[in-house]
Structures are given as C-alpha cells and as structure tokens.
Model the fold of this input.
Amino acid sequence: MIGVDADLEDRAIAAYLGLALGDALGATVEFLTPREIAHQFSREGGVHRHIIGGGWLRLGAGEVTDDTTMALALGEAILAEGGQVRPPAVARAFDAWMRAKPVDIGNTVRRGILHFRRTGRPWVRPSADAGNGAAMRCLPVALTGARWSERRLARAALAQAWVTHRHPLADAATVCLVLMAKDALAGLGQEALATRAEALVRRHPEFRWEGARLDNPSGYIVDTVKAVFAGVLAPGDFTERLVAIVNRGGDADTTGAIAGMLLGALAGTRGLPEPCLDRLRAEIRVRCVAQARALAAADNAPRGETAGVPGSVGRGLLAQEAGSLVPG
Done:
C-alpha cells in the first residue's frame, strides 16, 4: 500500500457515493419522459427529488442497479490484481456478477460476457453498438489510477471497456469521463471538466451538448454524455444538478450514476446530501466507501496494466487507441 492524502480519499468516497445516489435516484424514473415524471410527481411540484425506489424494476428504497453493482465488480477485480486493470480478471468478475443474477443487465454487456464464456477472450470485436455500459462503470479505473499519467489511465479505461463494448464513440466517451473524474479527484474543479468535455466535442462533434436536445436520453453513449455534460457543467450544488439530470428521464439511472460520480468528486463528502445518504441501502453505502478507500490507496506502481491482452488487441493497440483519445 502507498499513502493517500485525505482530500483524495474524501473525494474518492464522495465520487462512489455520488454514483450510487445518482443510480438510486434515477432508477425510479428510468424510461419515463419528463412529462410523465412531472405528472407522476405532481404533488411534489412535478419534480422527482427523493430516493424512494420503485420504477420499472420495482426496487426497494435505496437499492441500486447494474450501474453501481458492475462498478463494484470492476473494483473488486482491480483490487484482486493489486490495483491493476487486467482484462482477464475484469472479465471473470463480470461473469461472476452476471451469474449472481443482477437486478438488471444491458444487452451489450450480456453479449460481451457470453462471448467471454464461449471463447475465453476478455475482449470483443469492434461493433456498431455505441452503448453506455462501459462508461457507467468506469469510476474504479479513475480511483486506482488517480496518480497515473493520462495515457496510462486511458489504456486502462479501454482495457475494461473492451470486455463488453468497443466502438469509437463509446471508447472516446469512456476515456473522457475517466479523465474528468481524475481531474475532479485532484480538486481541479468544474472548469477542468469543461475543458475535457470541449476537447471531446472537438474530436467528435456528436457530443456537443449546447443547444442540443437533452430530454429523454437513451442508452446511446452520445445521448447519455450530452445529458451528463449539460447537468454537471451547469451552476448549482450537488443535489440541484443531480435532480435536474434524472428528471430528464430516459436512461436516468445511468445519467444519474455518471453525473453523480463527477459531482461527488467535485463536491467531496461535505457536499453530499445527508438525507439522501441515509436513504441509500446500508450495504451499498458501506461497500462503496470501503472500495473507494482501497482503490485510492492501492499499490499501483507500473506493472503492465494491460497484461493479459494478447494478439491484435494487446498492449500496442491499446496504447495506440488510448494515445489518440488523450489531448496533446
């Protein structure tokens, strides 16, 4: 283990709790439109503000979905490898997660895990599916790689992503979000995150969020990220921005989870709403805090973080792809 400063640990904990809070809050209104949300919560002024469970998954209050549980599975795989992001370990962890019958699982994630079961290969081929599944679970990479170079962190982000997702837009967004989380964990603030978002838009104009339609975002990574950028880069405190994001509806648990991790890292634990934390399921809260601390303090000296990725998707290709996604 190596030392970890108190501010990094605090922001790491807040990021993980923020992810779970956004997931739990958004799950209630997942797949609803903003108009449907306003009607359903008319007694609360037309706004969904509280962690109450329900939704199409019929969750108990404070329960989370695959966004949080898959991140926890990824984090466990990283910790088992001494702070390294090794695709075979990640694939095995995802396989065990699916065998445990999670409350929800995306189609692309399912296909990727089944591919690993059939072939033993912890990566998928490039596809036309630009889903948000690799992005929603990426926080553990940012936590274990908080001190890494940007290129190394980008390689690690892709190493976990390619277990189930492999598309230029999904890759670019996942790397961008990991780098944004790294900046927030370092205490660089909202302006640094805006700079990352603008760099992504320059490379891929599809992600331009200003003036774009943002309501009812789908699981398509472009829709997800535009909604997240618009919310995270808006004025307001943690609660105000997170509530605004999930009330856009659509894939609200995922937009909430991704935004929650960034907003939490920006705010630190003091910026998280105590009433919402109290509503989060105790087991999930404990696991998130423990894993955040462990990942932030992992002994992650360079030891070949892409080891175990053979052949055409080995270190060379990961390095090439990662290098193309890091500004400068």
Q: What stands out?
A: Residues 6-27 form the longest helix (22 residues). The chain has one domain: 6-325. The chain is about 60% helix and 0% strand. The radius of gyration is 18 Å.
